[in-house]
Amino acid sequence: MAKTSWINRNERKRATVKKYAALRAELKKNKDYAALSQLPRNASPSRVVNRCEVSGRRRAFIRRFKISRLVFRELASAGLIPGVTKSSW
Fold first, then answer.
1. Which of 50, 52, 74, 83 could form a disulfide with 57 if both were Cys (CB 3.0 to 4.6 A apart)?
2. Sign of CA pseudo-dihedral 13, 18, 21, 23
3. CA dist., res. 29 & res. 6, Å (int)
């Protein structure tokens, strides 16, 4: 499980991105890069990290299910993810 502070920090980044989204779009449209560079760093969407909704892990994140591979395997083995079956050939 990821530290709670890391998860909270990422949520603050998401809120900052949402707050400045319209302003960033306007500045980019006008190609005003000087004003764009004056915005907070965390206003950039590329600074937000995808994290597992269950464990908070950021590595091995599966976007389709929004969980990490470890949690995915546990839930799939328990049959808790609809439509996912263990492959066999």
1. 52
2. negative
3. 33
